[in-house]
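User: For a reading group we're discussing how well predicted structures match intuition. Take N-alpha-acetyltransferase 60. Before you show the prediction, I'll give you the sequence so everyone sees exactly what went in.
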Amino acid sequence: MELPIKKAIKEETKKEVKFKVENNDHLKTKMMSEKGYATDCNNALKKNSSNKSVPLCNLNNLQLRFLCPSDLLEVRALCRNWFPIDYPYTWYEEITSNPRFYSLAAIYEGVIIGLIVAEIKPYSKLNKGDKNILSSCFSKTSSVAYMLSLGVSEDHRRNGIATLLLDNLVSHLTAPENRDCKALFLHVLTTNKPAIRFYEHRNFRLHNFLPYYYSIKGTRRDGFTYVLYLNGGHPPWGL
Ligand SMILES: CC(C)(COP(=O)(O)OP(=O)(O)OC[C@H]1O[C@@H](n2cnc3c(N)ncnc32)[C@H](O)[C@@H]1OP(=O)(O)O)[C@@H](O)C(=O)NCCC(=O)NCCS
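Assistant: Thanks. Here is the predicted 3D structure of N-alpha-acetyltransferase 60, as structure tokens, for the group to look at:
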């Protein structure tokens, strides 16, 4: 049976979708899209609420919605707090207003407490260093998604918020209209143990070591590329 929220995506008319997770009274989530469509959070919630080891979030009134231009300053303050990297102002303008980005925020009591930002790119447009993510058997028309950002406010960590945001993104990337998207990849500092643990526990695999990839306050720092294969995507044989 079609989930009510999927119906809402198809109709693309409802501005707001409310649902309550069955068998879990304390877990109520409201999804709202300011771009006129809703994302499939229902699957993510059901999947996680049945997994005892990941209790998911137990916050009442948690809302998921897409970022909009008026979020810019709030998002910038959060990112400055979460990440050691200084992004230019234009980066914040882009992720809060350009529809090419899938920029989803978790809102609690009217405040952004988590966000995930990703974009789908043609595989042919990737930088040289990322080009060997996919096996050469995939056509030149394949695409991949790049995760630019994932963060949760310190007070709300280890409540399943990042899992919820990631599951939502993966649901979007595995929807029929995105079947050409064969992988989701990201870069992470080699020293960021909580994030690496998070990705490894969610089936991302280490793809590449990137010496001196980051420039942080004038110092070069190493990075890793992590990849989650989707829609039948796989790495070159032997990797
Ligand atoms: C990495 C990060 C996004 C994870 O966010 P989070 O919301 O804490 O993630 P989750 O709660 O979904 O999962 C984290 C862990 O908490 C556990 N957890 C979830 N709910 C829990 C609960 N109620 N009690 C105890 N543990 C819980 C999960 O099982 C998970 O453990 P695992 O990774 O070993 O499987 C967060 O630490 C962060 O924002 N870090 C700073 C920014 C950053 O480095 N981002 C990544 C850049 S590449």
